[in-house]
Amino acid sequence: xxxxxxxxxxxxxxxxxxxxxxxxxxxxxxxxxxxxxxxxxxxxxxxxxxxxxxxxxxxxxxxxxxxxxxxxxxxxxxxxxxxxxxxxxxxxxxxxxxxxxxxxxxxxxxxxxxxxxxxxxxxxxxxxxxxxxxxxxxxxxxxxxxxxxxxxxxxxxxxxxxxxxxxxxxxxxxxxxxxxxxxxxxxxxxxxxxxxxxxxxxxxxxx
Length: 207
Hints:
The chain has 10 helices and no strands. With about 210 residues, the chain is mainly α. It has one domain (about 1-195). The radius of gyration is 18 Å and the shape is globular. The relative contact order is 0.23.
């Protein structure tokens, strides 16, 4: 119980950290509403669940020691983030009070974005592999990992709702300046892509 009381706030801090997926939830919330953003973000949860299982099986260690595998995944993920950022910046130029993407973005597109961004960041599985073991009950390894994983997914869903809601409020109260919100989102995606591209494999240095 003591371990869980320590795990929950530490885990929620990770869930709330601004990263590319949370920025997407913020953007989708501003564009299409909280329900739309949360629904699209279930793609992220669907990706994180098997990542947690993979970490439990020790694949996180494989990724952390394979420089080639880590590099290949991060390059693909980084270029996708940069591409997505450029796309957001370009659509921002076409916006008036409401943007073109607000009208044309489909749920399938948003769902795919969330999933690809989650898959394209190798750091997620490494976080599960490095963070979770600090709170595991080794006498009940699988049950403990499943408990921690379930808590993480639940807190991640709560973080999604928070970011989507903030995005929606920003859209309501800053509707005439939504194009600036779009530009910030696009710039953020590009920044995250560049940071991911230059991040080091744990085999060679810290994340």
